Amino acid sequence: MTTTSHRVSIYLGNEMEVKKQLGLLFGEDLSPDDRETLVEEYIKTIVRPFSRYHIHKLGWDKFKEKTLNLELVLDWIKKNGWNEVHKWGK
Fold this sequence. Notes:
The chain has one domain (15-89). The protein has helices at 15-26, 35-58, 60-65, 70-80, 82-89. By secondary structure, it is an all-alpha fold.
């Protein structure tokens, strides 16, 4: 995830586990999807809103200090729901 001049890493895990977790979240079988589709249609769909929300709430300096991973992103979605994801994904 990048800003105009900064980067922060979000650890997602190995590709098979990511496909499994995102498949459960989206209710789809992501096994056959290629990496580009996985990133563009699924990962960015949840990581961008998660990042925007937390940068807005915490500020960039506090956000970049956090240890970020797929579990945190998924927990945020489960806690806040898809409406919040869509709100921050625009």
